[in-house]
Design brief:
Blueprint (H helix, E strand, L loop, with lengths): L1 H33 L4 H14 L3 H20 L9 H31 L9 H36 L1
Length: 161
């Protein structure tokens, strides 16, 4: 059972770490680069990215961190493993916060951007961008921090165990 706990914590740490790394890449490179392009290009690139990211390479760690975190908490409920339960529970809570921010803020913004229509046909691409960019970037930083916190908690539990 000890080996299973360690493997689940490793999977949870790697999965949440991959998500944190992806979100960090947006925060430190993608969005700063897009901040320098014109409004129509910004809308077009973000619309394309939001379609391209929905693939198995993204979804496996994105969902895997949640599944792994839940499994880690369950596996650490028995008395013999309970000393690590606060860390696994904190990791799960932080990752759930990552998902909540994604689902409540970033995805609706992505959907609104898609609903704006074809970038070449937009009457006011600056307004579309203004309704999206600052809020999306701000909340992406929040979810980067929560995913990184989840990684740290899962990794600490794995090291301490």
């Amino acid at each position: 059972m000890d080996l299973l706990r360690k493997l689940v914590l490793l999977f949870s740490a790697v999965s949440s770490g991959l998500v944190a790394g992806l979100l960090l890449a947006y925060a430190v490179s993608v969005m700063p680069a897009l901040a320098r392009v014109d409004d129509r290009s910004f809308v077009e690139v973000m619309q394309r990215v939001n379609v391209a990211i929905l693939n198995g390479w993204f979804l496996v760690p994105f969902v895997g961190a949640l599944v792994g975190g839940l499994a880690a908490v369950v596996l650490h409920l028995p008395a013999a493993a309970r000393s690590l339960l606060p860390w696994t529970a904190a990791g799960l809570a932080l990752y759930v916060a990552t998902l909540a921010v994604t689902g409540l803020v970033n995805v609706p913004l992505n959907d609104a951007l898609a609903a704006a229509g074809e970038p070449a046909a937009l009457a006011d691409p600056a307004a579309v961008r203004a309704a999206f960019e600052t809020r999306w970037v701000t909340w992406n930083v929040v979810r980067t921090l929560t995913a990184t916190g989840a990684l740290a908690c899962f990794a600490w539990a794995g090291l301490a165990g």
